[in-house]
Amino acid sequence: MDENKTRSKHFLLLVYQSFGIVFGDLATSPLYVYRSAFAGRLRHYQSEEAVFGAFSVIFWTLSFFSLFKYAVFMLSVNDNGEGGIFALYSLLCRHGKFSLLPNQQASDEELSTYQHAGYSNRSVPASSFRRLPDRDKKSKLALLILVLMAASMAMTLGVLTPAISVVSSIEGLKVQSNDLNHRIMVALAGVLLLSLFVLQYQGTHKVAFIFSPVVLLWLLSIAALGVYNIMHWNPRIYEALSPIYIYRFFRLTGIDGLISLGGALLCITGIDILFTEVGQFSASSIRVAFCFFVYPCLVLQYMGQAAFLSKNFSAISLSFYASVPDAVFWPVLVIAILATVVVSQAVLSATFSTVKQCHALGCFPRVKIVHKSKWIDRQIYVPEINWILMVLCSAVTLGSQDTTRIGNAYGIASMTLIFITTSLISLSIYFVWHKGLALALSFFILFGSIELTFLFSSYIRILQGGWVPLLLSSIFLFTMFVWHYGSRKKYLYDQNHKLPMKWILTLGSDLGIVRVPGIGLIYTHLANGVPATFSHFLTNLPAFYQIIVFVCDKTVPVPFVPQKERYLVGRIGPKSYRMYRCIVQNGYKDVNENENEYDFENALIMSIAEFIQLEAEGGGSGTPDGGSIGGRLAVVKSSENFGKRFGISKSNGFEGTSSSSLNITSSKSATLLKLKMMYDEQESPEVKFKTRVQLTLVDTRYKDSFVKEEVMRLMEAKKFGVAYVIGHSNSKAKWNSPFLKRFLINIVYSFLRKNCRAPSIALSIPQTSLIEVGMNYTL
Question: In which broad location class does this protein mainly occur, judging by the first location in its UniProt entry (predicted)?
Answer without folding.
Answer: membrane
